[in-house]
Model the fold of this input.
Amino acid sequence: MNSILNQVVLDNTISAYLITIAIIVVVLVLKTFLSRIFADLICRLVAQKSWKFNRQRFRDLVLAPIKLFVIVLTVIIAFSRLHFPGILNITIYRVDLQTIIESLARAVLIGCFIWLCNRVVAYIAGLLHDRALESIDRADDQLIVFFRDFLAVIIWIIGILLILKFSFGFALSNVLTGLSIVGAALALAFRESLENLIASFIIFFDKPFTAGDLVKVQNVNGTVEKIGLRSTRIRTLEKTFVTVPNKQMVDSILDNQSLRTQRNVLIKLELVKDTRHEQLKELISEIEKLLDQEHIFDFIVFLSETGHIFHVLQVEYFVSVDLPLREFYKLREAVNLSIIKLLEDKKVILAG
Done:
């Protein structure tokens, strides 16, 4: 029996192969149990007493990357006990096969760790987003989503640098120097994208608008649904979905209609030149009485122009933004119809 176990196959004894296989099989059987232990350890590091921490939701997010990390780490440790067979150690593009396999294994291990870090960040961002929903300020909601995506990009960049360092042996100083040169070239090539990225930070810190606001910028009028790293998504009043570059949202004149305190209505009545002085005075008085009602806060009626083809009677009033849009339109309609009836009663004729 000992002679069989000590028999050498591909530069390793059969007993060494069996021990390696046994280690891998045991870990595969216990991977879920081991992964939950690691998940609980991370949970204790991340969880705060003030948070409504959902352990099951956290486990569901991190179990997959932890399982893969445990399996890859076990395979690396188990196979490190074996000697790489000399017959398989061929050279590919001046690099031996053993070095290639070890580099790929380290790259996968680092990738699993970065994947795990992203899942933890995503869960923390989800908790912060849930807490932000409880506050009145809607800017916090979009800010958390923005920085979650931004941190994910940063984490993956760090992961790629780690892979270049520990898997392929690149000196990070040389890599960063090369990246700075390439970055300068890319900055010129993708100048507009960088401007949009900088504009996104301006939007989040200056807060000219937030997600959920009704805005008008250039020819686009609608509700902001999402503020991204490069662009802002707006649901227009026609229910279409428009993407506007963040640079235009910052550089253009933007009307945040959600911040207005009142809705303004302006009516210009062009009356024939033959309208008498008494008719005009009575009409102004009657319109003022008409506008003196519950939902109209401020109004003015005056003769703005005269002397040429017609007289211009200007009517301007303000309505509370708390009034639903449908009721606002009904109020405008009622005012317009009442003014038409006054014109008929006073026998005042519109020009044209």
Remarks:
- The CA atoms of residues 17 and 174 lie 41 Å apart.
- The first strand starts at residue 8 and ends at 9.
- The first helix runs from residue 2 to 5.
- The two ends are 115 Å apart (CA to CA).
